[in-house]
Amino acid sequence: MLSIGIDLGGTNIVAAVVNEEYKMLATAKTPTNTPRSAEEIFDDIAKVCNEAMEKAGVTIADISSVGMGTPGTVNDDGVIEFANNLGFNNVPAKDMIKERLGDIPVFIANDANCAALGEAYAGCGNGSKNFVAVTLGTGVGSGIIAEGKLVTGVNAAGGECGHMVIMVDGEECTCGRKGCWEAYASATALINQTKAAMAEYPDSVMHKIAAEEGKVSGRTAFDAMRKGDIAGINVVNNYIKYVACGLINLVNALQPEIICIGGGICNEGDTLMKPLGKFVQAERYSIHSKIQTKIMKAELGNDAGIIGAALLGSID
Questions:
Q1: Residue 175 predicted with pLDDT over 90
Q2: CA 238 to CA 200: how far, in whole Å?
Q3: What is the pLDDT at residue 316?
Q4: What whole-number distance in Å separates Cα of residue 7 and Cα of residue 249?
Q5: Which of 88, 212, 267, 301 is the most buried (most CB within 10 A)?
Q6: Up-side HSE of residue 55: CA atoms within 13 Å toward CB?
Q7: For residues 61 and 30, what is the distance between their CA atoms, to the nearest angstrom?
Q8: Burial of 67 (0-12, 13-18, 19+ CB in 10 A)
Q9: In angstroms, rounded to a whole number, what is the distance separating the alpha carbons of residues 68 and 13?
């Protein structure tokens, strides 16, 4: 049977018809256009689902389940308890989708958890049952799969690895804590670190690179490093240490088969991934184990969350 995967984001709503081989047969997309009411947003969710089915040449009778990934916290009843960038508070997402598409099984989960499922089963995980996905983006998103099941905790809000502290009384995080991994390892943190280094080193080539690009980005320090710029090298080396610190914590706590790294920063390829692997290898607690956690680059990009959402109904 086929399923529908939905990625509800702050910018766009995307839906796809997904087959049993985890392939997207057809997709549809529309802007989320926040802020507006949940009723209006869910009308558009139904619209893109119907458009995707029409493109795939199927009807709702051919669909076994609908899954949706959303920002924020979701409880076991399919209620989005809080999603600040959507303006959602206790929105009964599962029921609202059923009202619009019919009495079909509907599953709702956090978008990072959906991305983890997608990568674990259809991406770099290759069916791995013990898997962690980490996304280095505006924040640090993460999802944990243990023995084939999502780890969501007693309140369905678990798996937020970005908010484990790696620096006591460190940089303030948007969550209200200080020293969170997110405050050091996100793309936002990298940009802030780059700007601070630029202020300290007015002769750094990072100024020229940023001027040419029209902004300071996550690539600025990496591009400067490749030109031999000392300030750029320092920023990149420190950033990689911050990312590695969190990864080593996850390895020591969970011992997954694979930790998958996603987000735009991963476009740096081996420049990022090789030193991360070396740090993990050097500092992991399980130094004598024959089986070691692999640190791998994500493969599915934005499709991971959609495919993972479609999988929600088939993963026990």
A1: no
A2: 15
A3: 57
A4: 29
A5: 88
A6: 17
A7: 24
A8: buried
A9: 10
Task: Report the sign of the C-alpha dihedral through residues 70, 16, 137, 133, in that order.
Answer: positive
Instruction: State how far Cα 120 lies from the chain centre.
Output: 13
Average confidence (pLDDT) over 171-188: 94
Q: State the pLDDT confidence band at 220, using cuts at 50, 70 and 90.
A: very high
| R_g of the chain computed on alpha carbons | 20
The 63-70 sheet, strands edge to edge: 24-31, 12-18, 2-8, 63-70, 106-110
Tell me which of 138 and 316 has the higher pLDDT: 138
164: left (phi over 0), alpha (psi -120 to 50) or beta: beta
Instruction: Tell me the CB-side half-sphere exposure of residue 162, using CA atoms within 13 A.
Output: 27
Phi first, then psi, for residue 225 (nearest 5°) are -60, -40
Query: Do residues 57 and 44 lie in contact, with contact meaning Cβ atoms separated by under 8 Å?
Result: no
Residue 265 scores a pLDDT above 80: yes
pLDDT of residue 173: 92
Longest dimension (CA), the chain: 64
Q: What is the DSSP letter of 221?
A: H
Nearest to 66 by CA among 41, 90, 95: 95
Mean local confidence (pLDDT), 246-270: 94
